[in-house]
Amino acid sequence: MKGSEPIPITLGPARRAGDRPGTDRRLIDAFGRVATDLRVSLTDRCNLRCTYCMPAEGLAWLPRREILTDDEINRLVRIAVERLGIREVRFTGGEPLLRPGLERIIAATAALRPRPDISVTTNGIGLARRAQALADSGLQRINVSLDTLRADRFRSLARRDRIGDVLDGLRSARRAGLRPVKVNAVLMRGVNDDEAVDLLRYCVDNGFELRFIEQMPLGAGWAWRRENMVAAEEILVRLSAEFTLTPTREPRAGAPAERWLVDGGPATVGVIASVTRPFCSACDRTRLTADGQIRSCLFSASETDLRGLLRTGAVDEQIADRWRLAMWGKAAGHGVDTSGFAQPSRSMSTIGG
Fold this sequence. Notes:
Elements: E1 27-28, E2 34-35, E3 37-41, H1 70-84, E4 88-92, H2 102-110, E5 117-122, H3 127-137, E6 141-145, H4 151-158, H5 163-175, E7 181-185, H6 196-206, E8 209-213, H7 232-240, E9 245-247, E10 258-262, E11 268-272, E12 285-288, E13 293-295, E14 304-305, H8 307-311, H9 316-328, H10 348-351
Parallel strand pairs: 3-4, 3-12, 4-5, 5-6, 6-7, 7-8, 8-11
Antiparallel strand pairs: 1-2, 9-10, 10-11, 12-13, 13-14
């Protein structure tokens, strides 16, 4: 195993606190980073109850009236693409497949010019019957969460007996021509950390791209413990016992995953080390919650309301200006691995991945 050190990227000096975005009409922040990747949460609801995400009884869901309508989502995505320079749009949740109008939202996004790259992150429940329709609507890529290949362990982790649906969904996505089909896996010490090799072998054999993600402090209940997280370096050591990993040559830039060729390729594996090897200095993301709030970072302590502007008659440029201002104030980093870190009041399911 080679190339496990993070790629160093240095932030430029922050401009004065009173500065404004000025004439740059993109989503630029005070450190010079430009957001080109929009994450859109379509719902805070989910049909699984994963132990690291939410309690068995679920959460208090947002009232329907607070959730953005399809038309409101389409308008905000259009403003982001046409006025703010967004080039990638990923639809998340909660569970985005619970949104009845998902195909129509994707089709509206695909009709924009310049056309953004469109992807979805899902738990895979219901994907088998919708993969082709999603692809026909304009979806290009998909990420499916899968933390274990064992049915009993899946049932324990997700509190639902649905692993068969997830595996069927992965196969259906591949048949529908979605490329790539990525698998997201979170390893937890003493829970599923013995499956790193098995998960990679499964993905290599089936033509999926595996991404291991360090567990982040975003679950409901504030149960995250640093010592229970399986860090990137440990994941790579475990994989290297069975596979030869060599770093890919493409620049990482703002991509969250560091990637390695598996046994010379073409298969790859990635590790998203948000905690131990953060990529904040090259972050290019902006986030829209299901209830119309802009978040400049997953771990942000503040939000900017766009839903209120939408529903009180604001014109597109007013909304774009508010969005620009929200991103201008983005912090230099999330500080997860520091003593002063405070977990956001929202959990991952309400923020969007």
